[in-house]
Design brief:
It contains 32 helices and 34 strands. With about 900 residues, it is α/β, with parallel strands linked by helices.
């Protein structure tokens, strides 16, 4: 039933009918507030809060608190946001589906209808993370890689097919269509939604803006078209699917004013790397960033989407662009219907939300300004996306980092080894800084025709001048949409990319998430035997340690044309500004040095081809046929029924999170006594370090378990593909080969042992973190993880929290937390605790042989102080104050129920 609180239910002309909407201008009048001064992103959240008012989960207080948002207020109130839809990618979507299937098991066991557990909003799962680059540099690479993908993932895909028939609102975009965020941008996002109210004849069609959460941190890419949405863990997404609001602390909103325009030769990728570096320094974690100004108005939607996509890298909850003429133009060019486009335009105008704000029109928490003309060609790396390097400084930066210590982001190598040449058993010469993977991949750039056309134009000029890429470099093209191949073919550029080795290998998120596939055995051997610091260049958004390939220690993010250029150069140890890419031929056939400037495309050359790339009919045709009769997806058969039968599988297993479930939650622990440290870690430990990702080693706990269960090494697949099996995932938690546990004493040269190992106490025995955790559980000893700054940055990986919980960890104590991971820890019933400023594990001198007590949370209040008691091996006792990072009242409820999933399940079964 529609409500009309504050008389806000008004009519507007959608272009095809008279519809109803909840009017923000009317709300402003009713409350005597100038809502037009609020950031656009806050007003869109406010619309959802107003529209979903029910006086239970959402009250007048929630509405009035948000309507009275003040730019510089202390943030204490939580916002309940009910989203219009949920978007999943398959790595995170499969375990989420498994959790909901397990909830149905509980419902049936308790004598209730399993259909009580049903998504209440539309859910789209896009299968884009499962394909790997096994085949490359050959015309049939796409076909062969997809066949391998289906062979490896048949059990997962059968499970998805069961979900499609079991849940009415659950839909799957099959493999081979594109990357979730680009599919979302080009197709799933429809502008505004409308819903018929069957029980209310007077108010029967309500229009409302698109809002969503997704199980990938780069869900923020959708902010580029004015959609409020961000990444959450699968844990929160499940709650959103099942009708629960997404609760978050009222945010600061940072206004980011863009002025001027980009210089000739500068790409959107260069801009986003500059913005990422700048905003990381501005510490915008947990805040909204809202772009505005003449520069923001001038850039096209694909460039906006590139900036929005990288919000997790600069730490913000969103990187938001309001709806304006450029948004409407993008909807027209991507094949949306005229009815949808008109409704989007009319709705936002009716809400006084249409158009790009200019300086002084909005009250922001603070304003940051960037002149686009100051942006220069850049890379980011070699270990973090915020570490930007201007193109003319890449060679020197790598040279400096080669011999710097790990604490300085370096590689701790003897500088005399930098130019050493090695030869592998295949006769290939390798040096430090050599590029062994060059990949055009990831949603950040493959949604952007301008940079992909630039890559194609550069390839054309390079081929025409006789340049080539060394055959041992693993090159690949993995677009985010089949439309990309259409326009690269229509412009005649694809053959030139293919001649340089960038053949079409997949439609999916490949190298950027660790699905690069392996190097040759000979290359791997040479790297490991000689401790070579080899490199990858990719047009991605993540380059954390061991993410791209376990043996490539230097990974650089850059634009697609620079990926191609560096592939030609073959090494990071070449200054592309002053040194030639290689030798080619001029028009007279004479051999000469060819420089980057000789083959770099002009803006005019790119713009002349953009009209081919943005063809509405091509988009409509592409998305009209997601599947075809007889294709690989249509041949997958899933079981039927409302409850899953959980066949024996090493891919899918019934999750343990509802074992011994009761309607009344057990009393939560009021203290933790005699705990031991499972790991002590430094700064910038990411979810790539914590959560299982990439290849599974034979000798790891997960590899040993697979072999014990009859799986051959060739069939291990990746951790990501096995996220539906907790036995694999808990064994892979904290198993990253580059993670450094500071409990392990440094080696003689001061470097740290790498890998997921720890010291069991009090025995002092060196064990894998998994084996130590299991022993502590057997001994009934609670454990704690210690971390530094920015603990949990990276993808919104629910298994980073789920695995932590299954290992028996009661609390994570860090200097600061990434937004999603902190929330996920609470969602799994693990205490996130924060050191006070100036205090950390190092200043406390923690060695790992101490025992710990945590006290002071018998009656939990958000962000209260608790006490860590340290008992050292020599008998000394120290009491340390900590901040409890359970931030909101609803999170208190989640924790006291043992996590968000039991909380939601009890709510549904009690209804």
């Amino acid at each position: 039933m529609a409500h009309s609180l504050y008389n806000t239910l008004k009519e507007f002309d959608s272009g095809t009918q008279i519809g109803q909407f909840y009017s923000l201008p009317q709300l402003g009048q009713a409350l005597n507030l100038k809502l037009e001064r609020l950031p656009v992103s806050i007003r869109l959240v406010l619309e959802s809060v107003l529209r979903n008012y029910d006086d239970r989960k959402i009250t007048r207080t929630h509405i009035e608190q948000l309507a009275n948002w003040q730019p510089k207020a202390t943030r204490t109130e939580e916002i309940p946001l009910v989203v219009a839809r949920v978007v999943l990618q398959d790595f995170t979507g499969v375990p989420l589906l498994a959790d909901i299937a397990a909830m149905r098991d509980v419902a049936r066991h308790m004598g209730r209808d399993p259909k009580l557990i049903e998504p209440l909003v539309p859910v789209d799962l896009v299968v884009d993370h499962s394909v790997q680059i096994d085949y490359f540099r050959r015309k049939d690479a796409l076909d062969l890689n997809m066949k391998l993908e289906f062979q490896r993932n048949q059990e997962r895909y059968q499970f998805m097919k069961w979900g499609m028939q079991a849940f009415d609102t659950f839909h799957v975009v099959p493999p081979g269509v594109g990357i979730v965020h680009q599919v979302n941008l080009e197709y799933l996002a429809r502008g505004v939604h409308h819903q018929k109210i069957q029980t209310d004849a007077e108010h029967n069609v309500i229009y409302y803006p698109d809002t969503l959460v997704g199980t990938d941190s780069h869900t923020t890419m959708i902010n580029g078209i004015g959609v409020v949405g961000w990444g959450v863990g699968g844990i929160e997404a499940e709650a959103a699917m099942l009708g629960q609001p997404v609760y978050f602390l009222t945010p600061d909103v940072i206004g980011f004013e863009l002025k001027g325009q980009l210089r000739e030769g500068v790409t959107a990728t260069d801009l986003v790397l500059t913005v990422t570096e700048l905003l990381r320094k501005e510490k915008v974690v947990g805040k909204f960033v809202e772009f505005f100004g003449t520069g923001a108005a001038s850039i096209a939607v694909p460039d906006r989407a590139t900036l929005s996509n990288m919000a997790p890298e600069y730490g913000a909850t969103m990187g938001f662009f309001p709806v304006d003429d450029k948004t409407i133009e993008y909807f027209e060019n991507t094949g949306r219907t005229q009815e949808e486009i008109q409704a989007l335009c009319n709705y936002f105008k009716a809400q006084h939300l249409y158009g790009m704000p200019q300086a002084g029109e909005i009250d922001y928490t603070r304003v940051i300004t960037l002149d686009l003309a100051t942006v220069s060609p850049s890379l980011a790396g070699p270990k973090r996306p915020q570490d930007r390097i201007e193109l003319n400084q890449v060679k020197q930066t790598f040279t400096d980092l080669f011999s710097k210590s790990v604490s300085e982001n370096g590689f701790s190598k003897d500088k005399n080894a930098l130019e050493q040449v090695y030869m592998n058993r295949d006769g290939i010469k390798i040096s430090n800084g050599d590029i062994l993977i060059a990949a055009i991949t990831s949603c950040t750039n493959t949604s952007n025709p301008s940079v992909l056309l630039a890559a194609g134009l550069l390839a054309k000029k390079a081929v025409e001048m006789g340049l080539s890429v060394a055959p041992h470099i693993k090159t690949s093209l993995a677009p985010g949409s089949r439309v990309v191949t259409e326009y690269l073919t229509a412009t005649g550029l694809l053959p030139y990319l293919e001649k340089l080795g960038f053949t079409l290998a997949a439609y999916g998120c490949t190298t950027c998430i660790g699905n690069a596939g392996d190097l040759t055995p000979a290359l791997n051997e040479a790297i490991l035997e000689n401790d070579i610091v080899a490199a990858a260049v990719l047009s991605g958004n993540r380059n954390f340690e061991a993410r791209i390939h376990p043996n490539l220690r230097a990974n650089f993010l850059t634009s697609p044309p620079l990926v191609v250029a560096y592939a030609i150069a073959g090494t990071i140890m070449r200054d592309l500004i002053t040194e030639p890419l290689g030798q080619g031929t001029d028009k007279d056939g004479k051999v000469r040095d060819v420089y980057l400037k000789d083959i770099w495309p002009t803006n005019d050359e790119i713009h002349q081809l953009l009209k081919v790339a943005l063809n509405a009919e091509v988009f409509r045709k592409n998305y009209a046929q997601l599947t075809q009769e007889g294709d690989l997806w249509s041949k997958i058969e899933g079981t039927e029924g409302q409850v899953y039968n959980w066949p024996k599988s090493t891919y899918i297993a019934q999750p343990p999170f509802f074992t011994d479930f009761k309607m009344q939650p057990a009393a939560h622990q009021s203290s933790v006594k005699n705990a031991r440290a499972l790991g002590i870690f430094g700064d910038s430990v990411t979810t790539d370090h914590i959560s299982p990702a990439g290849a599974i080693k034979e000798t790891s706990p997960a590899g040993l378990w697979l072999q014990k269960n009859g799986v051959l090494k060739a069939d291990f697949n990746s951790y990501g593909s096995r996220r539906g099996n907790h036995e694999i995932m808990m064994r892979g938690t904290f198993a990253n080969i580059r993670i450094k546990n500071l409990m392990i004493p440094p080696q003689a040269d001061g470097t740290r042992v790498e890998g997921g190992i720890t010291l069991h106490q009090p025995s002092g025995e060196l064990l894998s973190i998994y084996d130590a955790a299991m022993r502590y559980l057997e001994e009934d000893v609670p454990t704690i993880i210690f971390g530094g700054e920015e603990y949990g940055t990276g993808s919104s990986r629910d298994w980073a929290a789920k695995g932590t919980q299954l290992l028996g960890v009661k609390a994570v104590i860090a200097c600061s937390f990434e937004r999603i991971h902190r929330s996920n820890l609470v969602g799994m019933g693990v205490l996130p605790l924060q050191f006070m400023p100036g205090i950390n594990a190092q200043t406390l001198g923690l060695q790992g042989d101490e025992s710990f007590d945590l006290e002071g949370f018998a009656h939990i209040k958000p962000q209260q102080q608790v006490t860590l008691t340290i008992r050292r091996a020599n008998g000394a006792v120290q009491h340390v104050p900590l901040l409890l990072r359970i931030d909101t009242p609803i999170e208190v409820d989640y924790y006291q129920h043992g996590g968000i999933l039991p909380f939601v399940l009890r709510s549904l079964l009690a209804a």
